[in-house]
Amino acid sequence: MSEVQVYDKAKWHIEGRYPKGLPESCAYTHGGFLIAWLLRQNFVSERCLRDHSEAFSDFTTCQKSAGELNQSLDGVLDSGMLTDQGNRFASDYIDESYLEDYTLLFEFTFPNVYDVTDNEEHLEMVCEMLDTIYSEWLEENQH
């Protein structure tokens, strides 16, 4: 089996340049939005869905926000959680560009990337951005 690739970890953000005084829960929002989009695309593996069925159920029934879903997954997004297609896209895009694109999306609304409110409106904005990026990626990567 190949080595697991970690795409995002809330701990990296908290231990990095995280703003002092901001609740740690804010470090889970951007990753939660990404996981929610991956779920919508059916890019979350069956094993991950089964292993975390309660967390995903709570999210899909609006009992948890995207950030809370990410917290339930220990703030980690890795290759073992995704389908093959999800991993192809994630390995090409997430490490290189996701946080940069996310920051650009909200740069005129929030003082920093961690201040983005974990709500449905912002989730939809991120999902629309990712839908566009994924469509472009598909066009570039068709075999």
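Above is the first protein from milestone M3; the second protein from the same milestone is given next.
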Amino acid sequence: MQSAHAFKRLVRNLSLTALTTAATLSVTMHSAHAQAAWPNKPIRVVVPFAPGSFTDTAARTVGAELSAQLGQTVIVENKGGAGSTLGTDIVAKAPADGYTFLVTDNSFAVSAALYKKLPYNPKEIIQVSLLADGPAVLVARPTLDTKTLKETIDFARANPGKLNFGSGGQGSSAHLAMEAFLMQNKAQLVHIPFKGIAAAMVDVAAGRVDIAIGSAGSTSAYIKDNRLLGLAVSGDARHPAMPNVPTFAEAGFPGYKMMYWFGMMAPAGTPPAIIERMQKEIAKAVATPKVVSVFTGAGVRPISTTSAVFTKMVQGEVTLWSEVIARANITAE
């Protein structure tokens, strides 16, 4: 009798084990199928700036290619304000399901270093891939007495505060880029902030401001028309849009490595498989003739990276800008 009961218990336990295993396999297979099916609805890409910036252009140009590749609409939304932190916060608080992404630039690292209190923790955002990078270009008004970068820095050292520089605003990437260069070379210039780098370049070209630093996109047309004097360009080689402008190394300042970058990020917790898939799709997108044409026309280089490489780069920039901000005693407006 006991043997019969024991046999029944054994059969019941085996049946329960089989049911549990089947249920687990069902959930696992359903999860794998759901992940493999990504994306199965439109993808939202937030740009934390107003329309018209190159960051916006990059998001829309790459977004169009991703839409074709993934078979789903990529919707770009501009959420500018608060130095890019408003739009970034929206992404930080979004569901980490692979349907919300951020396309931003150096401002992400600048904000992390500059603001003592942000509406989000920078760790709530993870890096997916770079989309593009481009050099920083140091320019001067054509009427400046000094005509090379070495002459200009020598004059600035001998005459502290005599020269000034314009930027896109207090704590902007252009402001920090110039402060970093001045610190490296022990020179002092008076900072004149503008509401955007475009406004600063207008005043440098008009002779009201001595020098400024900006992207190739904001400077190359002025240099070509001789309305700005190109002193140096960052990167390993001269820029094709301004072949007569020496690199910082050629100008005698090899230590200056500042580059402008543009990249895609996502809410922390987004499944690694989706991050990896998106990175691979970005690599395809930035190699298409359309993206290459738009990006090179704006003076930047199409590029893609792994999440790990992009993350390490951003962490390095946060450390650098934190040091520059502390040493120059820069505060947010």
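Note on the second protein: The chain has two domains: 43-133+260-328, 135-233.
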